[in-house]
Specification:
six-stranded mixed sheet, 37% strand, mainly beta
């Protein structure tokens, strides 16, 4: 069976070049088959069986143009239940294809299959797909490359000479399903990963891994577009290339006003297109591309660094084995929240005539959510490994979400919600406290399967507030089914009287995943124009496993094109 190799990035480049040449001018249907299977992969001098798509780790790149219809037949040959989420795809009127298990569908059982059908509307850039059940996305993930319509160029210069997907991940020597299963049984934190990866490769800073190094070969004077994707399970990452700058032109498949940095931050779930311009002449050196975590957690984390290598094409090669010096960048300190804030503060929508920023100027519904950690009490006479003998939990507005055993969307569509979910998710914390000050003595959270109902077409403003319970830390929140505008952010407790006056309603960045700042808050706005049930959750997998998630239920509108269509006939059954 196939295993991942260092040839993969080259294959992706070739495929991208072919797609750029061959995708037609008219919208067409792009068909793919994803065979989910177990594959033997060797990393860190150890071989283990992992779940992959088509035997590849990372998985295959899905190419399409803006406006195309996509059909992906997913056949589950693995021993696990499976579903695939097309992260960042709007899924307008195609909520049945969104993918999160027990939210929009029941999982595909071993031996089963399901065809995901959706149209890419008004989006171009880099997104990604991944498993959306348990921790299987650790190895079940791959890029989505959405090209502009044929004949439409990029709104920045220079046009890239080549485009390269750069996917960050995490690698465990142990089975990740066993890792999270054990943590949920004990109530403690899960074992951390053993390495970070770039395009599946850990690189030379890890033992036994020099041969498993991602290498980006460039020509002097040429510009390359790196399609960055953070597919790591539990870590935001700083990224930098020694002696080179990166120009950010896109985040989450939305163009931004270009700006240049030496180091960027990318959270799990987020994507970014950046331009790398090679030095004008052969430098006689190579350069490390490094990524390592940003975190303020009080718990354990994988405090290691992944390295790829930027290599220049030598115009005058003198034979094999020529040695050149290699330079390393300086990354921010692991807990450098100011570096994160400085970077995110630079992000602005392009807000041009061709790519406007349709920020809702009038708000119909305002919500205030606390996001953070908490606890559940240990069972009577039990032994738990969480704080003070409790069990770790996480919540939004003190509700730790419990996945149902029937998909929410199906229950909503059939009108059979009783016993599946309640429509009373709190609009604000029921017991306010000093969110970023001394935490309350009682850190227990409640369990529930609750949704928040929105009328079709509502303009929503949501403030998400981090809490200091069990330590303030950043939480990358991902909203399915929508993009949103990040109109404001700050540190400390949100001030509902004074902070809104500082909101940017002209050119705020548009995203699908945003970091709630450690010890701070973020405000977003979105237009609820997509009927269905839409998951919103922390993209740190450990926090999602502990319950940091909820769902929005957007009702049908009055017109036929504002109503959720019936489910496809092959929708998996629970």
């Amino acid at each position: 069976m196939a295993t991942a190799s260092s040839l993969l990035p080259c294959c992706l480049l070739i495929a991208a070049a072919l797609m750029l040449c061959t995708l037609g001018a008219e919208s067409v249907t792009r068909q793919y088959q994803f065979d989910v299977q177990t594959t033997s992969v060797t990393r860190l001098c150890s071989t283990k069986s992992v779940v992959t798509v088509n035997g590849q780790y990372p998985g295959p790149t899905l190419f399409a143009r803006e406006g195309d219809h996509v059909e992906v037949k997913v056949v589950n040959h693995s021993p696990y239940n499976m579903s695939i989420h097309w992260h960042g795809i709007r899924q307008l009127l195609s909520g049945w294809a969104d993918g999160p298990s027990y939210i929009t569908q029941c999982p595909i059982r071993p031996g089963g299959s399901y065809v995901y059908r959706f149209t890419i509307v008004g989006q171009r850039g880099t997104l990604w797909w991944h498993a959306h059940i348990s921790w299987l996305r650790a190895t079940v993930h791959g890029p989505i490359v959405i090209l502009p319509p044929a004949g439409v160029g990029y709104p920045f210069v220079p046009a890239p000479h080549e485009e390269v997907p750069v996917m960050f991940g995490e690698w465990w020597r142990n089975d990740t399903e066993a890792v999270i299963s054990q943590a949920l049984q004990t109530g403690g934190g899960p074992n951390v990963s053993d390495a970070y990866t770039i395009n599946g490769l850990p690189g030379p800073l890890y033992n036994c891994s020099a041969q498993d190094t991602f290498k980006l070969k460039v020509k002097p004077g040429k510009t390359y577009m790196l399609r960055l994707i953070n597919a790591a399970l539990n870590d935001e990452l700083f990224f930098s290339i020694a002696n080179h700058t990166l120009t950010v032109v896109d985040v989450d498949a939305v163009y931004v006003k270009p700006f240049t940095v030496e180091t960027l931050i990318i959270a799990p779930g987020q994507t970014s297109n950046v331009l790398l311009t090679a030095k004008p002449t052969y430098p006689g050196a190579s350069y490390y591309m490094l990524a390592r975590p940003y975190t303020t957690t009080q718990g354990t984390f994988d405090n290691t660094t992944v390295a790829g290598v930027l290599e220049y094409e030598d115009p005058c090669p003198t034979g094999a084995g020529k040695s050149v010096p290699i330079f390393s960048p300086t990354l921010p300190q692991i807990n450098d929240t100011n570096a994160v804030s400085n970077f995110t503060g630079k992000l602005r929508s392009l807000a041009s005539a061709e790519y406007p920023a349709a920020v809702p100027q009038v708000v119909d519904h305002r919500f205030f959510f606390t996001v953070g950690l908490g606890t559940h009490p240990c069972a009577v006479n039990g032994t738990c490994q969480g704080p003070n003998g409790s069990r770790f939990a996480a919540s939004i507005n003190n509700v730790s979400f419990v996945l149902p055993t029937t998909a929410l969307l199906q229950s909503h569509f059939t009108g059979k919600s009783k016993g599946v979910y309640a429509s009373n998710f709190p609009y604000y914390p029921l017991q306010p406290f000093n969110y970023t000050g001394t935490p309350p003595n009682n850190t227990n959270v409640m369990n529930g399967t609750k949704v928040l109902v929105l009328p079709y077409g509502a303009n929503v403003e949501l403030v998400m507030q981090d809490t200091s319970i069990l330590g303030a830390e950043s939480h990358p929140l991902h909203l399915h089914g929508f993009n949103f505008f990040v109109v404001g952010q700050g540190f400390g407790n949100f001030d509902a009287v004074n902070d809104p006056a500082k909101f940017n309603l002209v050119d705020p960045v548009e995203r699908n995943t945003v970091g709630v700042p450690a010890g701070g808050w973020v405000a977003i706005r979105f237009h609820a124009d997509n009927p269905g049930v839409w998951f919103m959750h922390c993209h740190l997998e450990v926090h999602m496993s502990w319950g940091l998630k909820m769902a929005w239920l957007v009702q049908d509108g009055g017109r036929p094109d504002q109503k959720l269509p019936p489910p496809p006939l092959d929708l998996p059954k629970c």
